[in-house]
């Protein structure tokens, strides 16, 4: 019994091993290389596959997806004998699993060495400035060479990128100084251009301001001159109307010789007023003014003897009419003479006697004015 159980267990174990050797599961985007007795038998696709146990063997499992490989920095000498470190990144994909398995032992290492040699060849014909600014041309050159060389290995290089180009530290310092100087130069140029534009705009603004100020001054002077002219015209018209009003008032008042002489004497003390008046010159007309107070025969130059009404100045319908004042001493004598002439015309006999008296009667002078009393002395009756 025990032997039977052992045999049964061995049989089950053999079946399990047989199934494991017969059934092969290949993941998606993978390809299995099957060898029979060390010779290529076939390629297993993704999924469940059946092989002959103990005869067929799954040798390699190839990844068919696009792979990314980053290579460490490698020193490269440029045309101007400068050593730069360049690290690259390769994007490739296996298109033929059989060629990738049997045409080359390690295709990743082969791609790395091919990339380094091709990169040295391309960068060796460029100087440092061109190397730093020609990444696209370097990438295109690398991709063309690698794609042509790896085609027989069943590999397609999709893309090549330069991850970094590091020049020596001394070159970095020089480049930084050059870049800093160039930026400072552009900053100085931009500052100078800004100052130039600001100066131009300031000058244009000052010019426009001066033009506007000049135009404003001209208009203000014109308006001020017009205002002064109109003010002068109105002032002259006002003075003319004032003179006409005063002249009309003098004519309406009918001043006589005595009143004007008295006013002339009243103005004399005002002439002597003031602390600066050291010498008082008495005009020669003062004697005539004194004589005019006692008699109306003499007259001051420019003042009429008879206070007869003058021609009235027409000031317009809106001018107020002043009442005529009563006559002075001379006008009373004239009125008495007129009354005597009228009575004589009624009686011829008495008129013949009275006419010589009326004609020969002298005109009595105006009563003298007493300066101390401020009034006129009552006139005496005329002598017969």
From TrEMBL:
Topology relative to the membrane: Single-pass membrane protein
CDD domains for this protein: SPFH_paraslipin
Family: Belongs to the band 7/mec-2 family.
Cellular compartment(s): Membrane
PROSITE patterns, alphabetized: BAND_7
Keywords: Membrane, Transmembrane, Transmembrane helix
Identification of the protein by name: Band 7 domain-containing protein
Species this chain originates from: Nocardioides currus
GO cellular component assignments: plasma membrane; side of membrane
Family matches, as Gene3D superfamilies: Band 7 domain
Residue ranges of the TM segments: none
Database matches in SUPFAM superfamilies: Band 7/SPFH domain
Residue ranges constituting the Band domain according to the UniProt record: 21-179
Signal peptide: none
Region (Disordered): 305-384
Residue spans of biased composition, Low complexity class: 336-363
Domain of life: Bacteria
One Pfam family, short name: Band_7
């Amino acid at each position: 019994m025990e032997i039977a159980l052992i045999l049964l267990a061995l049989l089950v174990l053999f079946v399990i091993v047989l199934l494991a050797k017969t059934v092969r599961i290949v993941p998606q985007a993978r390809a299995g290389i099957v060898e029979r007795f060390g010779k290529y038998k076939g390629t297993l696709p993704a999924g469940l596959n059946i092989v002959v146990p103990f005869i067929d063997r799954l040798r390699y499992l190839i990844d068919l997806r696009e792979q990314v490989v980053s290579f460490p920095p490698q020193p490269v000498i440029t045309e101007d004998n400068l050593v730069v470190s360049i690290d690259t990144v390769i994007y490739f994909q296996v298109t033929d699993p059989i060629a990738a398995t049997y045409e080359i032992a390690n295709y990743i290492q082969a791609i790395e060495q091919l990339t380094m040699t091709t990169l040295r060849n391309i960068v060796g014909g460029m100087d440092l400035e061109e190397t730093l600014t020609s990444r696209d041309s370097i990438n295109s050159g690398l991709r063309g060479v690698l794609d042509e060389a790896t085609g027989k290995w069943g590999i397609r290089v999709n893309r090549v990128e330069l991850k970094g180009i590091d020049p020596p530290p001394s070159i970095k310092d020089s480049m930084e100084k050059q870049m800093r100087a160039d930026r400072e130069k552009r900053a100085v140029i931009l500052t100078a251009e800004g100052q130039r534009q600001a100066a131009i705009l300031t000058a244009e603004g000052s010019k426009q301001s001066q033009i506007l100020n000049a135009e404003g001054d001209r208009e203000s002077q014109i308006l001020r001159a017009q205002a002064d002219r109109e003010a002068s015209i109105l002032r002259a018209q006002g003075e003319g109307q004032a003179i006409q009003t005063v002249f009309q008032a003098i004519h309406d008042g009918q001043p006589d010789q005595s009143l004007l002489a008295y006013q002339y004497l009243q103005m004399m003390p005002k002439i002597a007023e003031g602390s600066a008046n050291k010498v008082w010159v008495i005009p020669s007309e003062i004697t005539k003014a004194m004589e005019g107070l006692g008699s109306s025969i003499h007259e001051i130059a420019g003042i009429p003897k008879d206070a007869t009404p003058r021609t009235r100045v027409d000031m317009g319908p809106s001018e107020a009419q002043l009442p005529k004042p009563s006559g002075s001493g001379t006008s009373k004598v004239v009125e008495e003479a007129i009354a005597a002439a009228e009575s004589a015309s009624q009686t011829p006999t008495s008129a013949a006697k009275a006419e010589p008296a009326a004609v020969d009667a002298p005109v009595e002078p105006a009563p003298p004015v007493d300066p101390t009393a401020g009034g006129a002395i009552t006139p005496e009756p005329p002598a017969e």
